[in-house]
Design goal:
Helix content: 40-55%
Largest sheet: 6 strands, antiparallel
Radius of gyration: 53 Å
Strand content: 15-25%
Length: about 600
């Protein structure tokens, strides 16, 4: 037998045995649970309905006393029709207690009091009435056979009678329905039905006083009971409550058969669950068997791949509890062997990639270097050759001056380029001279403006300097700060249009840092090149920039000098419109002698 089939049988048996034992004992457990629910839920509903009826009894009593006292005193009552309908009153009648003649009333025009109390009602009312409080009659048949309650009270030689319909009781009973035949029933102090789902019983005020549960309610008890219902011809179980000081009672019955059906349904659900658990257990067994065998299959496949020449293949170590330790050891040993082979291959590959990368970088570096050296040298050689070979007197003085100027400009560019290379080399090797001292910020700014004056005047640039605090001092290498500003402002002038504007702004931040911003409205830098241009010999990819001479070293030197001082350097640009270079000098390097700045 296969390993997977063995696991399937073991798991199925382990799940089936306890479920079979449980299933045979669940029927009685489920029925008892349903009965317990009745004791909790139905009794709670009965008590809640009882509380509503108690409030209704109180409202009826208070309303009757108010209307009766005003009728006896011959006081006029406003909006009496609306008041009567609110609590389901039919009308209020005041009669002479001796003759039964109605002497006052509060009633709608459609349901007036009779001129004289009917004798069969009048004698009942007199026997019930008391002088100290209103008394409620049992439910009775009204003049047209409708169910009515009467509230009566004596006042000296008069008898006040209030007729109340059973509408509130009927509506309250209809609000309760559950299951197929679960309902509410309300009885009065004689056991007559005030509300019942069977219309004929409610309409005829069926008396159920002889039913066992009704006897308990009439005795003032509250609880749960099982009884036989003549209306439904079935055994019922109900929560019931007697409402103190009203004579009314309420019960919430439900057929016992529904409880048994609910228990049976739950029992069947458990059986379905049992079958599903058997299936799930079987599938889980098959899954685990496959998982246990999977590591071995993976090793076999990896071994075949190695045999075919793929020395970098490995298998994943499965640390799950269901995988035997021997399989894990086998996987680890195979991976150790494959890792050694793969490591050797990766080292060789990495060495090749690094060699190719270094070769490419060196080629690009020397190509740029050769270009930057070759261009000014060719210019120097060309113009010096013209001057040397020219016959005395053939060149005019202004031509000689122009040629010498070109030679001087090319030599200056060459010297600047060599200095930049030396600075970049010192920065990369960590040999840059760092002479830290304090100096005024305005000094490097003015030095920068003076150094670049010719370029500024040649392009008619409007140079704007906004130094918020001229008394601010820095603790840094002044030569480095000079070089940073010359490179940033030089780039701004170089890439600005003629008659453009370059602005240098410095301000103290709220946290004490110093912010220096160099802004121009020149040709700008494409967004994709903003990071690339910080690398040596890298310039923005723009045809207009190619026409402007530059080595591509300035921003790289600025970035490295800023990093060396713990400064933050960033560039933002809107291609074709402007460029903004921002230098944040940490507060540790800022010294302010201005009181206003210190206070800030």
């Amino acid at each position: 037998m296969k390993f997977s089939k063995q696991i399937f049988l073991i798991f199925s048996a382990a799940v089936a045995i306890p479920f079979v034992i449980l299933w045979f004992s669940l029927s009685d457990i489920m029925y008892k649970k349903e009965v317990a629910n009745v004791e909790n839920q139905h009794l709670l509903i009965a008590r809640n309905l009882g509380a509503a009826l108690r409030r209704y009894h109180t409202d009826l009593t208070a309303s009757f006393e108010f209307v009766a006292s005003n009728l006896v005193a011959r006081n006029k009552l406003a909006n009496i029709d609306s008041f009567i309908n609110t609590l389901s009153f039919r009308h209020f009648c005041v009669a002479n207690i001796q003759t039964g003649v109605v002497i006052a009333q509060a009633a709608p025009k459609t349901i007036p009091c009779p001129d004289k109390m009917p004798a069969k009602f009048f004698e009942t009312f007199k026997s019930l009435a008391k002088e100290d409080k209103p008394v409620f009659s049992p439910v009775m048949a009204g003049p047209h056979g409708q169910s009515l309650l009467f509230i009566v009270q004596k006042f000296d030689d008069t008898l006040v009678v209030g007729a109340v319909t059973t509408k509130y009781f009927v509506d309250l009973g209809k609000a309760v329905a559950f299951g197929e035949k679960g309902h509410a029933a309300i009885i009065d102090q004689k056991g007559n039905l005030l509300a019942h789902p069977k219309p004929s019983w409610a309409a005829t005020r069926k008396n159920i006083a002889q039913i066992s549960i009704a006897k308990r309610m009439l005795a003032g008890e509250t609880g749960v009971e099982t009884f036989y219902s003549p209306a439904l011809k079935a055994d019922m179980i109900a929560g019931f409550a007697s409402i103190n000081n009203t004579g009314w009672s309420v019960m919430i019955p439900q057929p016992v058969s529904e409880l048994k059906m609910a228990a049976k349904s739950a029992h069947n659900t458990i059986f379905t669950l049992f079958i599903m658990c058997i299936l799930v257990a079987g599938l889980a067994a098959l899954f685990i068997a496959r998982k246990v065998m999977e590591p071995l299959n993976n090793v076999l496949k990896a071994a075949q791949a190695v045999e075919e020449g793929d020395h970098g293949v490995t298998v994943s170590i499965d640390n799950s509890w269901h995988v035997p330790h021997e399989f894990k050891d086998m996987q680890e040993r195979f991976n150790a062997m494959a890792k050694a082979v793969s490591k050797y291959q990766n080292i060789q590959k990495k060495d090749r990639e690094n060699a190719e990368k270094d070769s490419k970088s060196k080629t690009e570096y020397f190509a740029n270097l050769a270009h930057e050296l070759k261009t000014p040298l060719n210019s120097i050689l060309g113009f010096s050759s013209v001057l040397r070979q020219a016959t005395p007197g053939t060149l005019k003085p202004h031509e000689q001056t122009e040629f010498l100027g070109h030679i001087e400009k090319s030599a200056g560019h060459l010297l600047s380029f060599v200095n930049d290379l030396l600075d970049l080399n010192r920065l990369d090797s960590g040999a840059h001279a760092f002479n830290e001292q304090d100096f005024y910020l305005i000094d490097p700014i003015r030095f920068c403006e003076t150094t670049l004056r010719k370029q500024i005047e040649d392009k008619n640039i409007n140079m704007v300097i906004e130094c918020e605090d001229k008394e601010v001092k820095l603790l840094a290498d002044e030569r480095s700060v000079n070089q940073i500003l010359i490179n940033l402002v030089g780039n701004a002038v170089r890439y600005s249009f003629d008659n453009g504007q370059v602005k240098i702004n410095s301000s103290l931040e709220l946290n004490g840092d110093l912010k220096i911003v160099v802004h121009d409205n020149g040709i700008g830098i494409p967004e994709a090149d903003l990071e690339e241009i910080l690398q040596p010999f890298k310039r923005a990819n723009d045809p207009h920039l190619a026409e402007i001479h530059g080595t591509g070293l300035g921003l790289s030197i600025v970035s490295k000098l800023a990093q060396l001082h713990g400064m933050t350097f960033s560039i933002e640009s809107e291609h074709g419109f402007s460029t903004t270079a921002t230098l944040i000098i940490p507060k540790e390097r800022v010294i302010s002698t201005d009181k206003k700045s210190q206070a800030a």
